[in-house]
Amino acid sequence: MLSLSSSLRNRGRIMKILTLIAVTALHAISYPALAETDFNTHPRFDIDPKLGVAGDFSGTYKYWKDTQAIEQFASIQTNSDNEWKMNGKNMDIVEDDFHPGHLAVDEGEKLVNLWEHREAGFKSCLGAGTTTLEGIAANYPMYDAKLGKVLTLEARIEHCAKKVLWQNFKQGSPVNASIALYLKSLSDGLPIQVDVDSGPMKEAYLRGETLFYKRIGQLNFACASCHTPGSIMGNRLRGEVPSTPFGDVSHYPTYRSPVGEVEVLHKRFMRCLKQMRAKPLKPGDPAYVDLEVFYTSMSNGYPIKAPSIR
Amino acid sequence: MKKILLAALMATLSACGTVQQPVNTNSASTSPMKFPCLSYSLSCGEIPVRKLVNKQLSGELSGNSEEGRNIAFTKTRGNCLACHRMKGGTQPGSRGPDLTSYGNLGRSDAETYALVYDMRWRSPDTLMPPMGTNEILTEQEIRDVVAFLQSSK
Asked: Does the CA dihedral A150-A252-A171-A210 come out positive or negative?
């Protein structure tokens, strides 16, 4: 008798536990997404860094992959709902004749030659050993083993100005931007080639990728909220249609006609963050460097366009 | 002379008083430092995204639909038009659902209020900013926007 009642009691307990499990499972089924969602990040999209620009996930690469494609499609993608598919690259052939970006290149060249004349060694510092500056910009950002950190082109300029010239060419300043644009123009037409396969560059890439998906600011947006498939990309955001992040880095620094100045990539990041009502960081911030590495890998293989206008 | 000075002083003081009064008209000035950022060193880099709030509407809606439309169309306030088509709005966005005849859907004030306040309890991956939770709009402003939505027919 005693053993019977105890086994009954046990059965009751087991039933209770089973019911609890069933209810919990039901709960999880009715709110699956809620249970799994990490509110701190936008859903991730698989990007293969080995593919470079060809890994574009917007389906628009075919329209702007080379000059021939741009010329072919620029005329048919003129309506405001389709324009985003050109990824702004039509500006590179339509508006290229003359714009203030060319003046900035000349200014940058003058500055480099002037300072090299005053302090021999500026050029070889910019070239990290070589005084031939043609083509170097295509490999930035890069890891500098001597300095033990990842350098953007603008960071290299700031570093060399400080070290060789005892000058402060702060990142984001007009002097720094002009020199950066001049150096970039010496790589005009060359494909971007940045290695993110291993070491510190891979680590920077991974950090940059994480930042790309991080939800920030009062509006709770991530970069990905406007620049991944299924997001606002390709849709109207009032007057604008956000486009793919692939291929973007190749035309920076760029002359921004609405702003009337040469804008470096980090200034563009600042503008985005302000629009997201997030704390804008200063040009050269370590977070921007990581983001730039991630963005540049998405332009790998795409030719540099400098100077450019947007 | 003293009287004039005193009068001027009083006027200045009362003017100050009126200037300082409107505190909760527009939350767009909320400091970005109160929200997550990309920095590795600033305190905002460590802030997590705010937890979702399933906000219950208390009492009558008592929203002003005219004011609601104003809020919905103004870039520095609700800016609902950035993503939604809305009644009477020009240059709308296209990512969010069309809200031009929201009032015909038969959704309750309470549900609408809770969704504008924080859409994440309905769609966790939503792109819509949590207007109430992140102090983009005040509770009264959300009531006004809901009134505008319900009047859109």
From this structure: negative
ipTM score of complex: 0.86
What's the confidence (pLDDT) of residue A94?
75
Q: Which two tokens stand for residue A70?
A: 């741009």
Nearest to A232 among B36, B41, B95 (CB): B95
Among chain B residues, CA nearest to A226: B127
Tokens in use for B133?
A: 């939770």
With left for phi above 0 and alpha for psi between -120 and 50, is residue A257 left, alpha or beta? alpha
DSSP secondary structure letters along B19-49: HH---SS-GGGS-GGGS--S-SSSGGGGPPP
Which DSSP string do the residues of A163-181 spell out, in sequence order?
Answer: III-----TTSHHHHHHHH
Name chain B contacts of A220, Cβ cutoff 8 Å: 35, 49, 129-130, 134
**Which of A248, A200, A206 is closest to A227 using CA atoms?**
A248
Higher-confidence residue of B7 and B141: namely B141
- The upper half-sphere exposure of residue A186, i.e. CA atoms within 13 Å in the direction of its Cβ, equals 20
Kindly give the interhelix angle for B139-151 and B65-73, rounded to the nearest 10 degrees: 100
Q: Residue B14: pLDDT band by 50, 70, 90 thresholds? A: very low
The answer to whether residue B39 neighbours chain A at the CB level (below 8 Å) is yes
